[in-house]
What does this fold into?
Amino acid sequence: MNENAIVFDRVSKSYPLYHHIIGGIKRFIFNLPGAIKAIKTSRYEALNDVSFEIRKGETVGVIGRNGAGKSTTLGLIAGVMQCTSGRLTVNGRVAPLLELGAGFNHELTGRENIMLNAVLLGLNISEVKERIESIVEFSELGDFIDQPIRVYSSGMLARLGFSVAAHLNFEILLVDEVLGVGDQQFQKKCYDKIIEAKKSGMTIVFVSHSMPEIERVCGRVIWIENHTVKRIGETKEVVTAYLKAQENNG
Amino acid sequence: MSKRLRHYIDLILVLTDKEMKLRYKSSILGYLWSIGHPLALALVFFVAFKVVMKIQMDNYALFLICGLFPWQWFQNSVTVSPTLFLNNASIIKKVNFPRNIIPFVSVLQDMIHFILSILVIAGFMLAYRKAPSVAWIYGIPVLLVIQFLTAYGASLFIASINLFFRDLERLTTIFMTLLFYFTPVIYPVSMVPDKYKFYVNLNPLGPLMISWRGLFLEGKLETQTVSIAMLYAVLFCALGSFVYKKLSVRFGEIL
It folds into this structure.
């Protein structure tokens, strides 16, 4: 049991369709019975009865169409959402790889943002200080590191974000479709880093729409469709089945 | 110290440092900004009530300054609160950090600006040939804590609820305007007619603002007034924390 990093045991996640109340207090109060009824009855099933296990040190891909429930899965692992039913176990600290510039402040320099971001993600100030030089070096941003990041290109932002996440050394890394930016050379470096992390025993959950990327990095793949697990298995096998299904639909 | 607490403190340090850097990037100008608004307000009320309507009070300008600076702190903290979580949506959706840190730091940085602006109050006192009192040494920290808790509670409450009812932002603005004129900031409690005096204590900000001015102008802290202010602070904090606790598990879904 201890070998598992992440266990989903019949996990379901649903939530009310909040647009009924986001409309505002005014609408809510003047339409109280209707609004309460709407909240109670209209629930959105984001995940339905999902079970899988990810062992420590595994690199697992998550594939599926938009809206299938991939992001909800990652949200549950990261702990920003809680499941409605079922049991969810996560052993180890989770490092989410953030989308471009999330948690960054555009007026601050790259170096200041590293500190800000790394502490938000869970490091202490002293831990960041130990690592900051290697983060800066890895990002290859050179003199730009002391410039405010509003002058950065999107590729440079991606470098900064990835460099921070790669140096957290947490047990579980979540990668959500973020490596598409950055130039070829840096992308390669990111993959090398992911493979290095993999070798060092880190558990990696990798969400992507790019099948070649999935095939390159992942040992196993979970295919999510219609808010539930359609198939789990060896990368090759699941990816082939997925692509075939896409062709038939498309 | 537990690792969790250490991280909590580090988060506060880093985020506060960020806010300070942003505000004072252009050093002296940043400071002028934060004292400019209450000074302008003081000027407006001075012209309206002293010059035009000839209120019967000595040192009315000083009186205004001593009330408007603490008020401005509360007003700023509450006015930005609706957007605190909204503006950090991208990070709240991805990272599981204690979200109440965001309002905490927001109020904290407003408090720091206020502390810096006490220099301005002291300057005005000297200009009016009054000396800052020794009571400031213990009085200021006490009132700082009370106002911090009050503002933090209110900010946490509004920031959390506003995710679910997004028009709370407009209500907050209207409510703050009402609260300002119902709180003895630009007039003394002594001018409030006797039959309404009771209501001043029903206003959560009333006792606090009266205490600030008593402390600055006369170097006095009335135990009773301060106690009521403290009671409101604890109530606000409890209410804000309760609502935050109930709603924060849903932040990831609604953003």
In short: The radius of gyration of chain B is 19 Å. The interface with chain A takes residues 3, 6-7, 10-11, 13-15, 18, 21-22, 25, 88, 90-97, 164-168, 171, 249-254 of chain B (CB under 8 Å). The longest helix of chain B spans residues 136-164. Residues 3-254 of chain B form one domain.
